[in-house]
Write a structure and sequence with these properties.
CATH class of the largest domain: Alpha Beta
Strand order of the largest sheet: 6-4-3-7-8
Helix content: 10-25%
Structural class: alpha+beta
Largest sheet: 5 strands, antiparallel
Order of helices and strands: HEEEEEEEHE
Shape: globular
CATH architecture of the largest domain: Alpha-Beta Complex
Number of helices: 2
Strand content: 25-35%
Radius of gyration: 28 Å
CATH superfamily of the largest domain: PEBP-like
Number of strands: 8
CATH topology of the largest domain: Phosphatidylethanolamine-binding Protein
Length: about 200
């Protein structure tokens, strides 16, 4: 009789333990995968949020574009688009700001733009296309805020795309933004400040 009670108790304990383990397993979620860092844009010329050195600005009579590098590129990127603009200006009381540089169809395998990208060439050897800036010239136009007033924030927006844009160097920023719509895989931003 005593043996029967021990066996019954053991069976009940086994069933209860098994049910508790199964219930706990159903309620537990697998641990989340570690977060993957997003697309990151940096420059060897200045840190994010810091002052852009004069050689990259209109303080120099012949400014050059800074070296830009990007990391943590997601898979399946076909091309990149880079837009540099002065976000602190409202041109003619409109939402438009000042476009300083726009380059698109940068190859998806690229991980940098060198210092001094040639401004005279609308199409670079690797297929990158440079459009016209606010002054109507192809290529890079350095930051140029005058000495009065606060520093302006010059924003380098890098877009990773799942397509190549079917546009030429005469494309406007509105054309490029419209063509990118629905194809942006990731975006990175680098901000530099400047005034003379």
């Amino acid at each position: 009789m005593r043996m029967k009670r021990v066996l019954t108790f053991s069976a009940i304990l086994f069933i209860a333990t098994t049910m508790a383990v199964l219930a706990g397993a159903r309620g537990q979620q697998a641990p989340a995968a570690p977060a993957v860092p997003g697309l990151t844009l940096t420059s060897t010329a200045f840190d994010d949020g810091s002052i852009i050195p004069p050689k990259y600005t209109q303080a120099d009579p012949n400014p050059v574009s800074p070296k830009l590098q990007w990391t943590n590129v997601p898979p399946n990127v076909v091309s990149f688009t880079l837009i540099l603009h002065d976000a602190d200006v409202a041109v003619e009381k409109k939402t438009e700001d000042i476009l300083h540089w726009m380059a698109f169809n940068i190859p998806g395998t690229a991980r940098e733009l060198p210092e001094g990208v040639p401004s005279a060439n609308a199409q670079l050897a690797d297929g990158t296309i440079q459009a016209k800036n606010r002054r109507g010239n192809v290529g890079y136009m350095g930051p140029g805020m005058g000495p009065l007033g606060p520093y302006h924030h010059y924003t380098f927006d890098l877009y990773a795309l799942d397509t190549k844009l079917s546009l030429g160097p005469d494309a406007s920023r509105a054309d490029v933004l419209a063509a990118m719509n629905g194809h942006i895989v990731a975006k990175a931003v680098l901000v530099g400040r400047f005034h003379r």
